[in-house]
UniProtKB/TrEMBL annotation:
Required for the assembly of cytochrome c oxidase. Its main location: mitochondrion. Keywords: Disulfide bond, Mitochondrion. GO terms for biological process: mitochondrial respiratory chain complex assembly. This is Cytochrome c oxidase-assembly factor COX23, mitochondrial. InterPro entries: COX23, Cys_alpha_HP_mot_SF. It comes from Rhizoctonia solani. PROSITE patterns: CHCH.
């Protein structure tokens, strides 16, 4: 049995709004992203929301990358800030998990 949605075929939900990269950088705390997860995995990513938003934008815009550049920039900035924070934590001797 299949479930039906109210959306028209070929349409996608509106992707979530993208915060400015500076806002994402200030709000990033990867330890909070890891807490509360039932399974521990090396693939857990605190930038998962930005990643999903960029894929949703691509789907919505028929994979036209030029229309989704803000989403890609937000993801790159989030990922860079996360890696920088992990690097600083390791150098300071704080746990990264």
């Amino acid at each position: 049995m299949t479930t039906r949605t109210t959306e028209q075929p070929g349409t996608f939900p509106e992707p979530p709004p993208v915060d400015s990269p500076e806002v994402k950088r200030r709000n990033l705390n990867y330890r909070e992203a890891f807490q509360g997860r039932e399974t521990v995995s090396k693939f857990i990513d605190p930038c998962e929301g930005a990643s999903k938003a960029s894929y949703a934008c691509l789907n919505k815009n028929n994979f036209d990358r030029n229309k989704c550049m803000e989403y890609f920039e937000a993801y790159r900035d989030c990922k860079a800030a996360w890696l920088q924070q992990r690097r600083e934590d390791r150098q300071a001797g704080r746990p990264t998990k």
